[in-house]
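// run 5 | inverse folding | seed 20
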């Protein structure tokens, strides 16, 4: 490959982790997102290195340099090097031998151009030497400058190799695009959109999460819906307007929560939400949060300040804030956030020992305390210990046979 340009090596490129790994390998270049971000003056999230050495040689060279080497994806040529706690992902140059839209069988090579041609987008096929010399075999620099996310070569073929690239397109478009989406990408994605349904739920969920974590996901997510991809993920109507409200308010408050945003997209139908959660293979915690948001009867939670305090006590701040966002009402949201940020859950002034001292046993204790608690909550938590003990005595007296 011929050099395309040269940059002043950023700090991370000359740091101890990158320097040690490059020195151990001898033949290696930085690749992909870290180079793309360096061209924009951004700090990369990850450092990736490509090398013509086969994986066994990479492992041996790293260990010889006293660098911890973890074979995180060795069947695809990927090894993670750890230097002073900082990971550097090293991948052997490769080309695809066989793909089926979900998995790829690769062969290792020493051909840098072949490695570039198998990547997804031109802006991800950039390479850099440690001295800042940049190589651009697919036209990624021009696309980066123009704000275009373009598949390398034939878009239909790139997508057919891995249908997850459809979802990746929207994320990269949302971050790097400066205008209308690439026409070839649009046509290829619309044609292949139903194939997203063949991907595993875990892969879809991971990519959706990264998309929904963007400060403003509305433009790329709007394309995802309009191009038919959402129906392949979750065959339910997408709450685009509610997502727009949640995304804008979260961004203004610096409180971005991808699960709340996903919830905004889903209908007020617990069965439909359960099906989507199962499809995405969500954890029990995340599934239950989405189900609660879809099924909570929150009509009375926000009637007044006392009702909001009662809801916070019974359901917890996260669940109440989720519902406040879901109502798409700025006044309610502001009131709940103001109350919830400094809210401390009060403690019922009486307990089991008080009931035992009054002769209650077994389930009768729980029933009596529940009635006292309901009375205490209805009084906006104002009853002190003496008042709650008096209420407990009244509950016990009312329950005794005459």
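// decoded
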């Amino acid at each position: 490959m011929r050099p395309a340009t040269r940059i002043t090596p950023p700090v991370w490129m000359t740091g101890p982790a990158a320097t040690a790994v490059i020195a151990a390998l001898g033949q290696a270049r930085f690749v992909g997102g870290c180079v793309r971000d360096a061209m924009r003056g951004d700090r990369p999230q990850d450092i990736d290195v490509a090398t013509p050495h086969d994986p066994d040689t990479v492992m041996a060279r790293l260990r010889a340099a006293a660098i911890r080497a973890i074979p995180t994806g060795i069947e695809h040529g990927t090894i993670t090097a750890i230097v002073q706690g900082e990971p550097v992902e090293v991948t052997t140059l490769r080309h695809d031998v066989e793909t089926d839209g979900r998995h790829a069988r690769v062969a290792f090579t020493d051909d840098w151009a072949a490695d570039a041609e198998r990547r997804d987008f031109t802006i991800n096929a950039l390479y850099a030497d440690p001295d800042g010399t940049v190589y651009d075999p697919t036209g990624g620099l021009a696309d980066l400058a123009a704000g275009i996310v373009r598949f390398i070569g034939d878009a239909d073929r790139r997508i057919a190799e891995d249908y997850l690239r459809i979802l990746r397109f929207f994320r990269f478009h949302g971050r790097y695009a400066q205008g209308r989406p690439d026409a070839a990408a649009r046509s290829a994605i619309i044609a292949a959109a139903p194939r997203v349904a063949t991907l595993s739920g875990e892969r879809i969920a991971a990519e959706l999460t990264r998309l929904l974590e963007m400060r403003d996901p509305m433009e790329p997510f709007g394309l995802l819906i309009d191009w038919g991809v959402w129906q392949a993920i979750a065959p339910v109507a997408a709450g685009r307007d509610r997502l727009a409200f949640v995304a804008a308010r979260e961004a203004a408050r610096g409180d971005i929560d991808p699960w709340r945003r996903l919830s905004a997209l889903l209908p007020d139908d617990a069965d439909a939400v359960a099906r989507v959660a199962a499809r995405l293979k969500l954890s029990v915690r995340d599934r239950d949060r989405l189900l609660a948001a879809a099924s909570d009867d929150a009509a009375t939670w926000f009637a007044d300040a006392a009702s909001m305090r009662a809801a916070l006590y019974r359901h917890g701040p996260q669940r109440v804030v989720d519902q406040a966002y879901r109502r798409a009402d700025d006044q309610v949201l502001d009131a709940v956030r103001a109350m919830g940020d400094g809210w401390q859950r009060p403690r019922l002034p009486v307990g089991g020992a008080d009931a035992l001292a009054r002769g209650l046993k077994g389930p009768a204790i729980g029933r009596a305390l529940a009635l006292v608690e309901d009375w205490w909550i209805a009084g906006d938590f104002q009853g002190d210990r003496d008042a709650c003990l008096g209420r407990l005595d009244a509950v016990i007296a009312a329950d005794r046979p005459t």
